[in-house]
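Our consortium's second objective concerns turning raw sequence data into structural hypotheses that experimental partners can test. To show how far this objective has progressed, the report includes one record in full. It was chosen at random from the queue rather than selected for favorable results. The single chain below, 258 residues long, was entered without modification.
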Amino acid sequence: MVADAGDEERLRQRGLTVLRPDRAVSALHGALSGGDGTVTVADVDWERFVVPFTVGRPSALLSDLPEVRDALAEEPAEQTAEPSALKAKLSMLSEGEQQHLLVDTVCAHAAAVLGHSGSAAVEPDLAFRDLGFDSLTAVELRNLLTADTGLTLPATLVFDHPTPEAIARHLRSELTGETGPEEVSVFSELDRLESVISTAASAEETVRSGVRRRLQELLSLVNSAGEQGAESADAQRQLQDATIDDIFDLIDQDLEIS
């Protein structure tokens, strides 16, 4: 049951059209009259529904439907855009100004997709999932950035680059041809690692267990590095905000400890 017009519009945006009462009653009658144990009736716009639904992972439930196969087959050819003025504008800016402009652009579009009145509601270093993004809004943001940049961007953009700052770095790399060597090295190595790990699916359980353990150790290393960076940034902010008395108190504490 749809509570109000807003709910109906949100369903429509996701490719689910509310059934007219006569069609719904007819479908219910057919389901009760048939011998199937489980029946699902829905009016689905597959081209609109299936891409966001499968953006994170393929759907074994839906992948055999002809409409789904057709919609996914058409996806790589869509979302191309004409070159925009953004690339020309970037060419007149310094590296720092380019990144700042692209971060502002991503945040503005992210705010629009989420329904915020301004980009101030979107923190550049906050993960999209923490900002409230789902598969639908991820694709909507991709579409806006495609139109703005003239680039052909993947539907998985938000998952591949999980913060506005990360997307801005990616866009700058694509638009200017400049890449950060460290970032390229890390992601290229991850790609290589992924291809190697895929071969472990057929390995013995002892091998798979060892792979899982090593990956968990690597993930813990990444998480701890992020926490140390956050603690360092917090300490730096505290030092910047400290008064003269605070600094002398800190010196006194260090002397007492030593």
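The partners drew two points from this record. Strands lie at 16-17, 43-44. The chain has a mean pLDDT of 75. Both points have been shared with the crystallography group to help prioritize constructs.
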